Amino acid sequence: MSNPKLLTVPQAMAVLQVSRWTIYQLIRSGELASVLIRERCRRIPESALNDYVTRLYEEAS
Q: Of 14, 38, 46, 47, which has the fewest Cβ atoms less than 10 A away?
C-alpha cells in the first residue's frame, strides 16, 4: 500500500491559492474530498486536489 500525502488546510489553500472559507466550502459541498483525524485534524489527500483541478479543466473545455 502506498502512503498518500495528506495536506493541511493551509497547505491546500496555498496549492489552490484560495481562502480557508473556499476550502471548507469545497469540502462541505463534496467537491473536495477530505479526512478527519481524531475529530479535529482535517486533511486533504493530494490526490483529491489533483482530481478537483482535473475536473475544473474538464469543465472548462
A: 38
